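Quick note —
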Amino acid sequence: MLAGDLATADEQLPAAISHIRDTGDRTNLPTSLQNLAECLGHLGQGGPAQAAAAEALTCAQSTGDRQKIRALHAYLGWLADLVGDTTAAEQHFTTADQICLTDDPDDDHLYSHGGDLVGRLAGPHGPSQPGPEAHPPQCPDLPPERLDDHVARCDRVLGRLALAAGDTAAAGTHLTAAAGCFRDGDYLTELAATLPSLADWAKATGDLDTAEQYATEAITIAAPRGLMPAHCAALAARARIRAAQAAAAGADPDLLFQGRDAANAALRLAARHHLPWNELDALRAHAALDNAEGVDQGWTAKADALYARLVPPDLDPDPLARVERLVAEQKAADADQEGSEDG
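Predicted structure written out below.
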């Protein structure tokens, strides 16, 4: 899965799960189901991925494994967001963060891979604005020689947030570091998910040739492997690049046609695989092409309407503070309970 051979992963992970079921090993079953959920998520199969993660959570709850329960709530949050259920995503991430903050000896919020999953809410929400819970993930305090995939995932989130805030210098530093780590370690699945953001960063700096190279590489990796969210993101990035190129060339019709073709392909794939954030990304790419062409074909209005459906107005603007309040209230209630029992 990590190396990009999703076809083999999609065969071997269910085989492993079948074997574990036969042996009755409920201790290891949640991990295998979690791995399958992640694989299916990369393939854009949100429904089956959620089913696998939900079964894993039920299994972990039956054994009382709080660390695994925490991890699975984080995965379910990521998968809920993948299919556009932002409210459920917020609920799962809140639960995961509560468990982490309650159990962590250093009183840390979700960190490392769990923090990355929360931070991914900022990823597909488009280059123009961060997502509803766009706060930096906490990452392990590791020396430079131990820079690994966990830190690289955090770098990717931080880069996307910096790009959304218009800080291209910080975005380039973080995204380049993330892509370099994934490339050096042959993490093709993660590299494919990172390159569209690098393409948007290069476009923001005005280097359209480099942006095109990143988008093309992402498509080359993602398309034959069925990495649907990454493929859609790369196609939308290409469409935005074509919009910038067309605007610089006086609304060149060939460039506009190529941009529309890429945006339409992204839109079709996103709709077919029920990936609404990628659908939003494609709508915004069409809107950028409208701007380059000097027309209004209604793409901005469609994007705004979809965004309004995906982001409910009652989302908590400060989820970390809410979790801290919930944990404090629970600890106070537990202390009162202990006091009454002692009395």
